[in-house]
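[Q] Does anyone have a clean structure-token version of this?
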Amino acid sequence: MTQAKNFAFGEDEKMLRDTARKFLQDNLPTDKLHQLVASDPDPYRESLCLWDQALWQQIVELGWTTVIVPEADGGMGMSLVALCALIEECGRVALPSPFMATANASLVLRECQTPIARHLLGEIAAGKTATLASTAQSGSWLAADCDVALVDGKLSGSAWFVQDARKVETFIVQANTAEGSALYAVPIGSAGLDVVADAIIDLTRDQAHIHFKGVPVSAAQLLSDDACAALESAEPALLTLLAADMCGAGEWQLQTTVEYMKVREQFGHPLGYFQALKHPLVNLMIMIDQAKSLTYNAACAIDSEPENAASFARMAKASASEMAAFASNRSIQFHGGIGFTWECFVHLYSKRQKHNQVLLGDAKYQRGKLANLLMGPVAA
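[A] Here you go.
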């Protein structure tokens, strides 16, 4: 199969993106975001879960949770390219919400291909939130051995690095079983479930590790009896969404820094007058364009060229991670004496970018995996 022209980004995708951009700019300007998630600069503050639930309800009403859900399950059945456009706009405003976590859960559920998974997809289309609880403490999330086990119909162990754990209603849990590894849907209020918040730098998200202390599950909660296959099939899409979020945040960092350099003067000239400052921003613009092209290339491949999806997605995640690091560094440095302060909004984006960089593997990790895909594992 070959990719469509312009990564299959057509009029429907453009309209979805433009509508989302206006909605988010109108409802979550950066000063409102800062007031919402960064009102307390105390480094020893309690780890809170801060988000606008009324805004989330509006997002559900706009149908964003239906975009990637197949039509047969009550969704719009749009492409991953369309979802990337939404995620990019979420990154542009550093949206604190369970949207990406729920989208990731939806992508895994699509790969399960079971009636129970399809039923949960329908509930997500209607507004239910979910997140993946499939990572071991070591950071591995595709290995057959995870840290949760099913024994006598009960889950025991722990899942780590669970994204937006305190914003969702359902966990998609990987567990070792006598037959292998399975995925179960576990409601947030289940007996024996303990959600422990992690202290992370990203103020726009929350993360937790979850302890399962004999949590009972039934056959009606079994989403897939082959967790590794479902997670591996969904991994390229998950990497691509992270890259899209970084691209949106990177564009905000670039535009905001350029605007500041137009008005801040030094030695009788705006900062933008000096080549030593202009050239790095041009380099950043190029890096954003490269990462964005690779991201939509990966999304289009997942939709129409699956044989290349894994390699293209790792290229996108690696490129976007390096861009995010450079964008964060330059945006702070070029804001001068205020760039490192709590009151300057750039720290919100730098922290979100840092979280995205390492989530599911940084640039070095992705390039190592890409080398294995293209050339085979290196002999010991």
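[Q] Thanks! Anything notable?
[A] The domain at 228-375 is CATH 1.20.140.10 (Butyryl-CoA Dehydrogenase, subunit A; domain 3).
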